[in-house]
Amino acid sequence: MDATQIRRLGPMLDRFLAHFHDCFSRQPTREHLTGYVQGLLSDLPRKSAEPIALDQDIPVRTLQEFLAAHRWDHDLMRDLLHKRVARDHACEHSVGVVDDTGCPKKGDKTPGVQRQYCGATGKIDNCVVTVHLGYAAWNFHCLLDSDLYLPESWAADRPRCRQAGIPDTLDYRPKWQIALRLYDQAVENGVRFAWLTFDADYGAKPGFLQGLKQRGQRYVAEVPCTFRGWLKLPRLTRRGWRGRPSVTVEALRNYSPAFRDQPWVAYRVKDTTKGPMVWEVKHVRLYPQNEDGEPGLPVHLVIARNALDHGEVKYFVSNAPARTPVQQLLLVAFTRWSVERCFEDEKTELGFDHFEGRSYTGLIRHQRLVALTYLFCVEACQRWRGEKSGVDGVPGEDSVECVGSVLEANASRADGDVGEGEPDPSADAATQCFCAAMPHTRNTAKAAGSRHQAELRPAV
Questions:
Q1: pLDDT at 379
Q2: Where are the domains of the chain?
Q3: What is the pTM of this model?
């Protein structure tokens, strides 16, 4: 960032925030929006209401009430953010990413706080957990929306909820149900996702996969090793389904001839500061076991292991059309990095986890203001990146998320068609946009240590 760009940042921020002025009916409250966002963009070590107020010369109580009590429409702010992303960042290969994150807290007054698994600390901790929907398209990514995961212990204690300002209408919901609500709201506001992806905590929930299928949404879902299904469809008789019982995907990987006799095919997923990240893949079709124990429509089953650590194995299923290339499925599956990058940036730079209030409204408003600020930062960087290219034109650690086949393309597909629905005529073209093939090699360890031999486009 040069001096000219720094001088332009203030007017750019004013123009950006002007798009959200309709959320505020009173000018004084609207002015607090600018002050709060400037505080989030500052170099303050803590970015909660009090230090921001002191830094921006605003009475502390006033800014605290701006978050928790003043009348302004934070739902409209979310809707306008959605519509801006839908208008300015639409992409036919966009990927929605569902994930949740924990923010460690002290005490027992922050809405939803309790001892539960916290991803930020990697252990059971006293924290607040929120569910998020991210959006990735080419070299753009942001968080679209979030909501509080209300533990059952809180939902059962309505006086405690009312004290924290949690509406009586907000009850306990599994995380996957919160994710569906976030998805529906974004779609209602015009956001379109070519794909959705998420980790095994969501992929393990049949209700979530079924909900996406009912909505006509394609997904690539990481699933746990206990996910069950059949490689061959059981026979349907008058007495029900007959044949072998379903087996776990882990058992299929270890014992099924369809996997055992299939060679591992290596794909370069991304470049890192330590060299290319390479995963080896096997790919077949699977009839998943539904909640009622019956087989569902066939889906892709992709088993991937880290080329440098064969003990690290991931399982993915997808309801994509039958002839969708495995490269495209991997591309979507490994797009989850984008939401993790959003969490990292928002926590380290914008004070996402610095909220210190006791109000549910204040918590939601803080997270939406952080998401709004992050969108401004991404758009400003995107504009400046267009004005001046990188030093050497070589993609960096977090700017390349493309999948490239290390082995010949015809080895990447298992026998037979895989997946639901009709073939996707645009699948091959989309994969060509995202993926670059590398020369044929049987030495995957050597491939893992090699550098890119072709420039790759940013992934979604």
A1: 94
A2: 219-327+394-448
A3: 0.84
